[in-house]
Specification:
Elements lengths: L1 H4 L2 H6 L2 H5 L4 E6 L4 E4 L1 H7 L12 H5 L7 H17 L8 E4 L5 E8 L4 E9 L5 H8 L1 E2 L4 E3 H12 L9 E8 L1 H27 L5 E6 L2 E6 L5 H12 L3 E3 L2 E3 L2 E8 L7 H17 L4 E4 L2 H20 L5 E10 L5 E12 L3 E3 L1 H10 L3 H16 L7 E6 L7 H15 L6 E5 L1 H5 L2 H14 L2 E7 L6 H6 L4 E4 L1 H5 L5 H16 L3 E5 L4 H9 L4 E3 L7 E2 L3 H5 L3 H6 L1
């Protein structure tokens, strides 16, 4: 640790990874004792965001989020940090050690980084205090005042070791659907308040003998000693926890996904039962959430496959297994290709081509969507630079990529600069969820990108709740009509009316309107009559590798549409 502390400038500019992976809670403060950055350990302990907030929270408010640090110790920590920052002496030894009633101690280090920034490290050390107090602290979740994972594992092990043959405990695990979006909208204080409100409702639904625990983040567990009651509790939790909450003056609506495992049929150890309940919870989540599932043995096979794919996907980019395919779009007036949508493809060494609808959600779940999106952006710009002007390359952008606005803008500008692709030939495709999750922030970001000359498209328009106001207030150049309307054009008059309305809206605002998923000549003629300017789908071409683009550009699409 001293090596990191003794090279503070490297921590900030070169060894960001070392800071993030430090085995202690570490934060970076400014001269006013406000939080500017937190590493992984600090985020877990204090539930803080990873980087700058506006406004930055004061360090005393951050410390208060840990129930393990009493107020008198927090005040002494603040006093020591303030003194160190004012004096700026950066000593090499421990700055201070604070004893806690449990017998633990906290060692404090404060080091200057330059530029009105200081790094503060808090190291927990076990002591020889009251064993019962230490055990109670180790088994308690400070935010919600219920048990933690260690607590539920210990209680489940005790229940399984009961001599009564009729004792058949059940474990239920659940997580909150759409918690991230609520947390983004209400801030971390609102997210914490929601977690506490959820616990309050779980207490209402459970018996006094049931054990409740927070496993991590927004994931919880309930232990029932009478396991047969779990099939009654699970749907009750889905109903009760899915009702609206009033959080900090705003209404929040979430759901939960519940998994159930019961001894001895679903496992004979605490580890097995918890794991199998987690498998069932993932099945409920993949079914769309707001539901529950009981563990079945086939779930283990699917879960193992998922875990293998997660592990392999983490290495796929580095091993060069990800490539791009390009699907063209054609202008209905000129019968010419106007651009290509870049689509990620994963060629697994043993499983072959893994479908995007399998690996993209996995990338979202394991935090890989950011690196994957950055790679797609750079590769698409680099490959599109050699195409004839003015062909456009469209790149899909996930909602998660927009969370760090500065990083995203820097990736866009560096991809354009390094590739030499003219700015006007890059189009960013965003879903409704990406622009409406944090609409004000997204609006500012997209306007900044639009001012650079980048084109902006709304993908899958009409499938969600995006409104006329969204189209008018966001700087969209392109509307892509969701393919569900195109598929039903021949059989549903309402679909034709929707297509005509969207086409009129888009063209009236000077936008390109693309009908997605056009597969037949009849569909192409119908969307052309309805006012769409472009089509994309298998009628024009399936996605092709970059080396096939020159040949595709030589095709005579006019002849195809005359048939």
């Amino acid at each position: 640790m001293n090596a990191v502390l003794d090279a503070p400038h490297e921590v900030v500019s070169v060894a960001d990874t070392a800071f993030e992976r430090m085995p202690f809670a570490a934060v970076i403060l400014d001269g006013a004792l406000r939080l500017r950055r937190a590493n992984g350990k600090a985020r877990a302990r204090f539930r803080t965001p990873p980087s700058d907030e506006d406004p930055a929270p004061p360090f005393d408010a951050v410390l208060a989020r840990s129930g393990r640090i009493p107020i008198d110790v927090r005040l002494r920590i603040l006093s020591c940090c303030g003194a160190e920052i004012r004096e700026g002496n950066g000593r090499g030894e421990h700055d201070a050690v604070f004893p806690l009633a449990s017998g633990h101690t906290i060692a404090l280090f404060t080091r200057p980084l330059g530029g009105d920034r200081w790094m503060v490290v808090l190291e927990d050390r076990r002591g020889r205090g009251d064993p019962d107090a230490i055990a109670a602290e180790d088994h308690r979740d400070s935010l919600t005042d219920i048990g933690n994972r260690r607590h539920i594992e210990a209680k489940l092990t005790e229940a399984l070791n009961e001599p009564d043959p009729d004792s058949q405990p059940a474990i239920l695990t659940f997580d909150i659907d759409r918690f991230r979006s609520v947390n983004d909208r209400l801030g971390w204080k609102g997210g914490d308040a929601l977690l506490r409100a959820v616990v309050g409702r779980v207490r209402q639904a459970t018996r006094e003998s049931d054990q409740i625990a927070r496993l991590d983040g927004d994931t919880f567990a309930v232990l029932q000693y009478n396991g047969h009651a779990a099939d009654t509790l699970a749907p009750r939790l889905v109903d009760l926890l899915g009702r609206p909450y009033l959080i900090r003056g705003e209404v929040a609506t979430v759901g939960i996904s519940v998994g159930v495992a019961r001894a001895p049929a679903d496992g004979e150890s605490a580890a097995a039962l918890l794991q199998h309940a987690e498998y069932a919870r993932h099945e409920a989540k993949e079914a769309g959430g707001q539901t529950w599932r009981h563990y079945g043995h086939s779930m283990a096979d699917r879960a193992r496959l998922r875990q293998e794919l997660e592990a392999d996907l983490r290495k796929a980019l580095a091993l060069g297994q990800v490539s791009l395919a390009y699907q063209p779009r054609m202008n209905l007036r000129t019968r010419m290709v106007t651009g290509f949508e870049a689509l990620a493809r994963w060629s697994h060494p043993r499983r072959g081509m893994v479908p995007p609808d399998v690996f993209i959600p996995i990338a979202e779940d394991i935090g890989m969507i950011g690196p994957l999106g950055d790679w797609v952006l750079h590769a698409a710009c680099r490959e599109a630079e050699s195409w004839p002007d003015p062909l456009v390359v469209s790149v899909n952008v996930s909602a998660r990529q927009l969370d760090d606005e500065q990083h995203f803008i820097s990736q866009v500008t560096s991809a354009l600069r390094e590739s030499g692709l003219p700015t006007r030939r890059l189009e960013l495709e965003l879903t409704e969820a990406a622009v409406t999750r944090r609409p004000e922030e997204a609006r500012v970001l997209l306007r900044d990108l639009h001012e650079l000359g980048v084109r902006i498209a709304m993908d899958n328009f009409g499938a969600g709740r995006a409104s006329l106001r969204d189209v008018r207030t966001f700087p969209f150049d392109t509307l892509k009509i969701d393919q569900s309307f195109i598929r039903s054009l021949d059989s549903n008059n309402d679909s034709g009316a929707v297509v005509r309305a969207i086409a009129a809206l888009g063209t009236g605002l000077g936008m390109t309107v693309i009908a997605e998923g056009v597969e037949t000549l009849s569909q192409a003629r119908m969307v052309e009559a309805d006012g769409c300017t472009d089509v994309q789908g298998y009628l024009v071409s399936k996605p092709v590798p970059v080396e096939d683009i020159p040949a595709l550009l030589e095709r005579d699409f006019s002849a195809m549409l005359r048939r």
